[in-house]
Amino acid sequence: MPNNLKKRILYVENGIGYGGAIICLRHLVRNLDRSKYTPMVVTGRTGPHYQEIAGEALWQHIPDRHIDIVGMHRILDPANWPDKVPGLRFIINQILARTDDLANFLPFFVRLLWTAWRFKADLIHANNEPLCNRAALLVGKILKIPSVCHVRGDQDGSHLMKWAFTLPDRFISVSHWVAKSMQEKLQVPANKIDVIYDGIELEKLDLKANGSEFREHYQISKNDFAVGLIGLLIPWKGQDLFLDAANHLKDKIPNLKMMIIGGTPDDCTAYESSLRQRVLDEHLEDIVVFTGHVSKMESVYNGLDVVVSASTSPEPLGTVVIECLAMGRPLIGPNHGGAAEMMEHNKTGLLFAPKNAHSLAEQIEAYYNNSELRSTLGKNARDHALNTFSVSTHTDKIEKTYELLL
């Protein structure tokens, strides 16, 4: 196809940090049919991992947060003093909202509009839910080009959320659970939703990655039983629940190591500090290990005895679930959201009662004590992943969505 006939897709990613959403977007962009499409990726954040995108597609960093309104809400929302004066909390929330509009939303919107116009975008693909991507979707309306929104989580059904969900021309949902939530809470018509599981480049996964290097780096011996919770250090990812489970298990599993694996977004440094303080207060220093961000995840999966996903809110379909299954590694996840949709208990993984540390601890202990599970869980998971999460299948389905809109 001649270059001037290629369709230009503008991808907008403004998540809280470098996690599953941006990783899946990179898989998509790398495998997009370049004879049909020219991609440009706009990210609200920057850093070494974001800058790598420039080697895969056109890339533009447009800051989406000059003032940390989310961090302010995290401090103010639990506080009691605003409720002592009638109407004060409402006034504070209005001030924060208008500050967010003027200092964060408006500058991002103007620069994104200019970028999309200069790029001559034919379609906008917002990589997160509509409310946080309203700037991208409004740019689509102004330029009179179609937009698709990738929805990766449950929504609360607020009036503002419902308005935001009227903006996209089409939705990509990462699981049937997410699609059902959109229909029930936000009245999104089923015929506007395409359920497309996230895809990963299965052939590029290093199945034989040296897990011993990971263990040695963090001083985990061959005799230690290493349980790893993988994910950004964000409260709903379940690190507190993981520490609760550590307390249940510390006297039941010899040589137990509970590993918290993942980076901390700038907005959540206080949360990381609280987790580390808990470890000290509860005398878990010999059990709990914080690794921070780890780049080569294959060595992490192969270095752990069992992987945990412990999200307290239903997670659409976490990258950890996909990668772990694809690596053929044993996984324990909550019985809600995408994990429950993807895993069959005692066959391709183990499920525990959501938000229940005792249930999580029981499943970890059950895996530790069951040699049959240790030998079959990973193989079953790998077979399931090969049939479900191919990036080529993922890309083909998304390109069909583009064709429909264009």
Describe this structure in words.
- The chain is an alpha/beta fold and 406 residues long.
- The protein has two domains: 3-199 and 390-405, Rossmann fold (3-Layer(aba) Sandwich), CATH 3.40.50; 202-388, Glycogen Phosphorylase B (Rossmann fold).
- Helix content is 45%, strand content 15%.
- The protein has 16 helices and 13 strands.
- Strands 3-2-1-4-5-6-7 form a seven-stranded parallel beta sheet, with helices on both faces.
- The longest helix is centred in the first third of the chain and has 32 residues, at 88-119.
- It starts with 6 loop residues before the first strand and ends with a helix.
- The mean pLDDT is 89.
Largest sheet: 7 strands, parallel
End-to-end separation in angstroms reads: 16 Å
Query: In CATH, what is the class of the largest domain?
Result: Alpha Beta
The CATH architecture of the largest domain comes to: 3-Layer(aba) Sandwich
Strand order of the largest sheet: 3-2-1-4-5-6-7
